[in-house]
Design a protein that fits this description.
Number of domains: 2
Largest sheet: 3 strands, antiparallel
Strand content: 5-15%
Number of strands: 9
Order of helices and strands: HEEEHHEEEEEHEHHHHHH
Structural class: mainly alpha
Oligomer: single chain
Number of helices: 10
CATH superfamily of the largest domain: Transferase(Phosphotransferase) domain 1
CATH topology of the largest domain: Transferase(Phosphotransferase), domain 1
Length: about 325
């Protein structure tokens, strides 16, 4: 497992994944006269910070909704780096660390398994007498019952992790519905929005085929939180990145003036467009489009620029 962890980490390059050097794995022989008696050793990046389990105990408080959304987005981005090739198979608060700057790091890649073309991994539940794969309470049904793992298996464990973070209770402390095997946990987290709780339940669907198809689907679902955070039921934290508190009276006056200015300016451009020759046609049309976009972004200062930013990152960046 140590050798496997080094081989996996050498192929991953992300601030949310520990770094290793090519020769990070080695064997140490305490007794030179007995070469068969050795220790497996692994050198890796030291992550400053606490595991999320230790963070909960040390702070003695639950995370806020804004923090939950930020942490969930970070972990989905990390999984987006891992899933093209591997499955983690042991996501839980003890295997996630938070740096002092708020950056999350997913650790313990000893249980990682390579993906096959069919996205199905046959795995042994017990790899040795002292080593098991997965953790009760966080392990998905398909790993427990069928000894199979999929990318959606990591989503299940991630959802259970947020049950722990939002409720303060271990997932095993909640009861499950007999027929559907769904967890009865939402009564413990009434201060959070229904949309966030629905997303976590979506990640924890008992049947892996009913969970999100991939990390991109989850990010697309999460755009709702970034675009219209105020629409969340019971939403109290307004510090989500990209949103600002706006004074209605002043902004309504400014937006009305900008809207009138936009109409007048576009009317003038249309008049010019009628009079100019063909060569200037394209120039004036481009001016019309640019001015319209700029003025729309001013009239709708919260949602429009954020929408453009999200679409831009989705298309051009793998680390949205």
């Amino acid at each position: 497992m140590f050798q496997q962890e080094v081989e996996v980490l050498k192929q991953l390059n992300h601030p949310g994944i520990p770094r290793v050097e090519p020769d990070s794995y080695f064997r140490f022989v305490p007794n030179k006269n007995n070469q068969d008696d050795f220790l497996h050793c692994l050198v890796m990046e030291k992550i400053d910070g606490l595991t999320l389990e230790d963070w909960l105990r040390q702070n003695n408080q639950l995370i806020t909704e804004a923090q939950a959304i930020d942490w969930l987005k970070q972990l989905i981005v990390i999984l987006n780096e891992i899933h093209p090739k591997y499955l983690h198979r042991d996501i839980k608060p003890d295997n996630i660390m938070v740096r002092p700057n708020g950056q999350l790091v997913l650790i313990d890649f000893g249980a990682v398994k390579a993906l096959t073309q069919k996205y199905i991994i046959q795995q042994q539940q017990i790899t040795s007498q002292n080593t098991s794969i997965g953790t009760l309470g966080y392990m998905p049904p398909e790993m427990m019952n069928e000894h199979e793992a999929y990318p959606q298996s990591d989503f299940f464990s991630l959802g259970r992790t947020f049950v722990r973070l939002l409720s303060g209770k271990h997932p095993s402390d909640f009861t499950q519905e007999l027929q559907t095997q769904k967890l009865f946990w939402r009564n413990e987290v009434k201060s959070f929005s229904k949309r966030l709780l629905n997303l976590i339940d979506f990640l924890m669907e008992p049947d892996w085929q009913n969970r999100p198809k991939n990390t991109q689907k989850i990010l697309l679902y999460m755009f709702d939180f970034l675009m219209v955070p105020a629409a969340n039921n019971n939403y109290k934290n307004t510090n989500i990145v990209g949103s600002k508190r706006v004074k209605p009276s002043k902004d309504k006056l400014i937006n009305s003036g900008l809207l009138i200015f936009s109409i007048v300016l576009n009317f003038i451009l249309i008049c010019l467009l009628i009079k100019v020759d063909y060569l200037r046609h394209v120039v004036v049309l481009l001016m019309f489009v640019v001015v319209s976009i700029l003025l729309i972004s001013l009239v709708f200062p919260l949602k429009f620029p954020l929408f453009i930013k999200i679409v831009y990152k989705l298309l051009l960046s793998r680390k949205i």
